[in-house]
Please model this.
Amino acid sequence: MIEAIRTDTGDTTDETGAVGGAAAHTAEEQGAAAGAAAHTADEVLRALDPAAVEDAVRKAAAAEIMPRFRQLAAHEVLEKNGPHDLVTVADRLAEEHLTAALTSLLPGSLVVGEEAVHADPAVLEALDGDAPVWIVDPVDGTRQFVHGDPGFATLVTLALRGELLASWTYAPALDLMATARRGAGAELNGEPLRRSAPAAGAVLDVAISHYDFTTDEQKRVLAVLETDGVAPRPCGSAGLEYLHIATGELDAVAFSWENAWDHAAGLLLVHETGGASGTVAGEPFRIAGGNALPFTAARDAETARRILGLLAAAN
Model:
């Protein structure tokens, strides 16, 4: 059980230890406190057909996203909250496609999708409910998608009361499909992803919130990572950055926003490959929100503690 990323943290007692007042949480160190909900979660997982979900994700991308890649007309791209926060017809149609497909695969489930929440913030309340919830980002990395960059992904996660059960990270233009299942590990294109850790003394490669999406205060805090032994850079698609952690191409992320659809799939992927995550308050990241920010996810607990220590000292 991934207690580190549950929505309710009142019964969480495990910590890897604190550096600068911040704790990192690993998959192995979680589980006992949330046992009461595990039976229901196991029932949901037993009812799930992962291959059917993967097929639904692939079909949504094939029908709604890829035909529009590098083919978007000007009127098919709109701004949501500013010039860098874009939405396209592909985002909207892919989310509609996935909403219909996923709820049919798991009757009684709900969908919290990025575009649905933008239209009606009350949709987020499903994350605190008792029904299984599909968390969907139809096009993570819309800016890349609009500019013809293949670095975008479709992210789907199944959650129950804040516990992440299974996830699918699909980069159709790169032909990458990463999957994770609670307690069962993770795969990339059908091959197991193995845990790894940075080499002792190696410079840590860290993707951080992009400067175009951060306030001056957030920039100030993240700037503490510009120090010896750490090499920060602006992030691209959050979902693909998490995949890079899982494959060992990246050591950590440090993010200052908490939208569930951006982080759910990747956090499960990282935890199922032996990684760790936590907030600057020394708490598990809560998918439903209300987190102390920024937070980190990393290849191992030691890396997470180091990043959190630096960030906590700046707060």
User: Anything to note?
Assistant: Residues 280 and 312 are 5 Å apart (CA to CA). The first helix runs from residue 35 to 47. The chain has two domains: 17-26+196-314, 42-192. The domain at 17-26+196-314 is CATH 3.40.190.80 (D-Maltodextrin-Binding Protein; domain 2).
